[in-house]
Amino acid sequence: MPPVSWSDPTSSATERYSLLLSSVQDYLDALYNGDVPLFERVFHAKGRLTSTVEGQIIDMGIPEYMKMVAGRPSPADRNDPRMDQVLHVSMPSPTTAHARVNDAYLPKFFTDDLTFIWDDNRWQIIQKVWHFTLI
């Protein structure tokens, strides 16, 4: 049973948690395969991506990120090993959820914090905050 204590007459907590896990997997699959259409489905149109890199705050919207993804070879294209891992998933309410995952775009190894919102009968990432280390 998911770690929640609310009830929703339109969708059970168990169903929503299952959909959340699917959305997390879709994110990891889109990242590894460079799948822009899947990314556009898993990210909310108003989503943001934020990090601090070398003392500078990076903040970008989904169109900018999709352009970046489309313009580079995917880890799958490069035959990189798949290094993703789901570290934590929580769903504290019917409309908010969080996942922490590890993934790689070599030589960078990332920890991503993904905040999801329930919109249009699905979970979508509204905020991605990441940190990377070189491996």
From TrEMBL:
Pfam families reported for this sequence: Lumazine_bd_2
Name of the protein described by the UniProt record: Unannotated protein
Native source organism of the sequence: freshwater metagenome
